[in-house]
Structures are given as C-alpha cells and as structure tokens.
C-alpha cells in the first residue's frame, strides 16, 4: 500500500530540521525575542545534546526522544538567531538609532532606477558625513523618490547622491485588508524613504560596482536589447522579457491581471517551470557525451553553473532558488551514484533558503512554489493512475492534467487566502498556456543564441511575437468568459490551514481508504464550518467607521452589519486602482455586500457638503470640509467624532467650548501647515485626535 508518510520521516531527515528552524523564525518575528535569549537557548540545546551523547548506550536507547528534543531546541534557536540578525532594526548601526538631523546624507544607489509616473525610484545604502569629514556608513537601505528631470534620467547603479533632508519611516496606510508594505520593505532591509526634488541633491562620482553585479547587469541589458530589437509590439515584448529573465517593468498591468484571473500567473513569474525547461534542454545538449568517461564530471559542473547563472540573472527569487537548489542536489546525487528522496531534496532546499534569508518564509513565491511541487510529488501519480488510456496522445494529455490538478490541490488554500479568488478554468488555461509558453521560452533562448545573424534573429522575433500574441489573446479571451473565476473569497489564516488539512487528509483517504484520515478530514471540515459560522455572525453584527488613508482625498465607510455607506470624493469610487487596492480589500475583509442607500441619493455614496451631519449607532458624527460657524452650524450639543478635511476652517478652542468634541480625525487631505496648529490646540486642551497622514487609517468599532 502506498504510504507517503513513511517517506516523510524516514527518508527526509532535513524535514525534521526544517520544522524547528521555521518555527524559530516565525516565533522570533512575532515576539521579537532579544538575541541573548536565543543564544542561551542555543547553548542549552547543545548542553542537552552533550549530556545525551555522554550517557551509556542503553540509556541513550531509552531516552532517544531526548536527542530529538535537544536537536529541535538547537535548530529552533538557530532560526530565531538568523531572524534576529537578518532584521536590520536590531543592528547597532541601524539608521533608526542614529541622530541625523542637519547631517549630510550620502546614498549609494545599489539598483537600476525604476521609472514611476512622476518620479524615479532607487534603492540605496546610506552613509552619513561626520564632523570629521569622513563617511560613516549606516546599516539599512532607503527608498529614494526623485522628481523626473534631465538629471534623474542619468542615474544608474553605483551613483552617489548627497542630500540634506529628513528621512521618513516607511509605514502602512492602515487601510483594513491592505498590503503590508512596511513588512515587505523591512524584509528587504528598507526602513526609511525620502522624496527629493531635482534641486535637493548633488550627484557625485559613484562607487565601483562589483564584477559579478556588473556582469549580471550587462548580460541582462544585452538580452533586453536583443528582445527589444526583434520584438516590436509593446504587449508582446513585455511578456517576452518577463518570461525569459523576469523583467516586469514593461508588462501591461491589464494583461497581468488577466493572467492572474485565469490561474496562469506563474508563467509570468519566473519559477521552477522555467528552470525545469532549461534543465531538460541542457540534458538534451549533453546526451552526445553521456558515455564519455573523460567528460563525466564536466556535465554536472556545466549544468549547475548555467542553472545558477540563470537564477541570479532573473533576480534570485525564492521560487527560482528553490528549483536551482533542488536540481543541484539531484545532479550531484546522480553524479555520485546516489538517488535521494525527493522529500529530502525539497526539505534540504527549503532549509538552505531559510538559512540564507529567513524572511523568505513569508514570501508568496516560496509558499506557492513548495506547495505546488509537494502537491505534484504526493498526488500526481495516484491521480494519474485513476484512469488508464491506451492511446499515447490521450495518455500524455491525461498526464498533463494530473500534474495540473496535483499542483493546484495544495496551493489552493494559499491562492484563496492571498488572491481571494479561484480560477474556474485553470485546467484549460494551463493545458494550453504551459506548453505554448515553454515553446516561447525555448524560442527566446534560440533568439539570443543566434542574435548575431540579423535575418535569422528577425525571423525568429516575428515568430515569437506571433506566438506570444496568440497566447495573450487566448488568456484574455478565457478571462472574459462567464463564470471564469469565483471571486470575493475571504478566509483567515486558521481557516486556510484547516482547508490544507481537509484537502490533504481527504486525498489521502481517497487514495488509501484510511478511515483515520477520513475522520481527520471530516473533523477539520466541521471545525472550519464552525469557525466560519462564528465569523459570519460576528460580521453580521458589526458596527464600524473607517476613515481611509488615501493621499489628498476624503474617504470614509460607515459599516452596519453587512451593509455600508460611503462618504467621500465621488471620483474615488470610479477609480479602478483605488477600488482594487484600498476599498475592495477592506470591504472583502468585513464581508460587506451591496452599499446601503443614503438618504437623498438612492445609492451607497453620500453627498458631502461643507458640513455633513451623520447620526450612527447613537453617535453624532460631523464631516467638515469648509468654514464652520459656531452660531449657525452646530446642531448637536456633543459631537462624538469630527472628521476634518483639507478645506476646513475653524477654531478648536471655541469649538470645544461650544460643542464639546470628543475626538478629532484629520484625514489625508489636510495640509501639514494646518495640522501643526490644530494638533497643538488639541494637545493643550487634552482632546484626543488621530492624524491619518502620520498614523494611517482610522478604524473604530462600536460593537
């Protein structure tokens, strides 16, 4: 009987090390344990292990669990230490610990500038010019946004920028359900940012660039120039660049959304699929020298070198590094005449990746990559063996379907949790898109190899443009079909974990008819339904006010149960980007349905005047965006919440005496010069206030 659980523990020793390592990483990030505590824990683990080793043989046999306990403590502590030292905020020279007021700051650009709508964004390491006229390097990176001009267009990797302007910490908008940009930045070592005008900085000769960086950048630029020379349509070019080397700056946003909606966004994101295709191509190239003993060791060295070169060329993302490590282990094992367990190979690659960067544990590519490949390893063969086809063509098609289904099983909870949707036609789109994109990838490699022959490269470029155009048209067409996706799915982390258990245990029962796993699957399903029902009841009885952090705009949702009313600038409700990144995540998180009609409008959007009164849940709320006359405008004896917008004009001490305002909320449209005086008045009168420009979105719950 097929029992994968035996392989997990007997043939995957690295899995036993990976679990405590990952647990230590997660524990350290959540609870922020001091480094010396983890060091003490690590020493204690080694002490327990030493005691165990010194015990007599029969005692060691009786206390074998003590050995596992000591090793678990060691690797748990190792995970915590790796996370502690990887977090730049724990470094003694971190820029957040230094006083940089009135100091000249020196930024060394470490990446190519990225063009935005009104500015260029660069990532830089920071230094400070001291009183001794020496540069004192600081630990940490900053994001610099420089207004577009002729000067900024000349910025490049290695440039040195001098400026004298205060840095601002990277923060989240605080909008419910929004992307955690602060955590994302910290994971990349970025904790501060600055906005510079073209006149607020000086550019000086840059620092020497490392040979490896210069080589990789030069190679990437060469590949991009070949593609741009031979593929002329912008839409097709953007996809070609993303497919080959993961360059996404020229990708059409609507096209990316179509790929995501259709369940084939992994084609655009450089992943194990791409490296696997290159690995197969290299194996075919080395077939002629397979039996030549003199070249026996040349093959693994060359293949591994090419795979790692491609991995770094594409940005060294976790998903591609996972594949590079896995293929490297496989190639080395084969060259040494040893066959390793695929579970151990996967565990080993995941273990090494987290040792390199523990923050990759939260990386979406890392999670999806391992869940998909693990699903294929566990479920592909049992699914494939369910049906037998004599026809070889049909059999190959069924094998491809089996791979797609197996990959989707374990990645499904992650997709629902992160993307809140499920592509209903993923099977059809993958069956067409994966083979076609593989041909395109091989065609691009051929184009780069023959780029020195103009007429051949031009012909290949036209063929590739046609194939990419066909692929794009197919994906966009599938995205527009009825019921192409199941949208507005919202699950919490515990619910996603339960879904993973339900799927895994359920599939194991189907393949082995194990009653124990059927009970686990049904029990998890029952627990999932209970948690879901409690959550639905909680959201059905919710009463909240959310004032969003949207720069230079007014935006507020008043939530009553599963209904809401929107008060704010009307153009925001028509802006697709704001709906996607600000309103939709929040309304999905709170399980909101259709907007509740606002009196006098017939819709869910309230018309804002200079002064708008709202009575909600026995609270008096005043929205102010104009001149407030204390004699005529105040209609309520006490104002529980006063939301202030940019055009407001009033006197806080007089207003406090007249109306007794309990709390002020200054929204994102209020200019800094007005905020300064109002906040000073609030502090002097001990009035509570919330500055959205500083603290992010304001959320208050009444029940």
List keywords for this structure.
alpha+beta; 703 residues; five-stranded mixed sheet
Account of the 3D structure:
With 703 residues, the chain is of the alpha+beta class. Helices cover 54% and strands 14% of the residues. The chain contains 24 helices and 20 strands. The strands form 4 sheets. Strands 1, 2, 3, 4, 5, 6, 7 and 8 form an 8-stranded mixed β-sheet that branches. α9 packs across α17, α10 (272-285) packs parallel to α12 and α14 packs antiparallel against α15 (392-419). The longest helix is centred in the middle third of the chain and has 28 residues, at 392-419. The two termini are 54 Å apart. The mean pLDDT is 84.
Overall pLDDT: 84
The 3D shape can be described as globular
Q: What is the makeup of the main sheet? A: 8 strands, mixed
Q: How many H/I helical runs?
A: 24
Q: How many strands appear in the DSSP assignment? A: 20
Instruction: Please give the alpha-carbon distance between the first and last residues.
Output: 54 Å
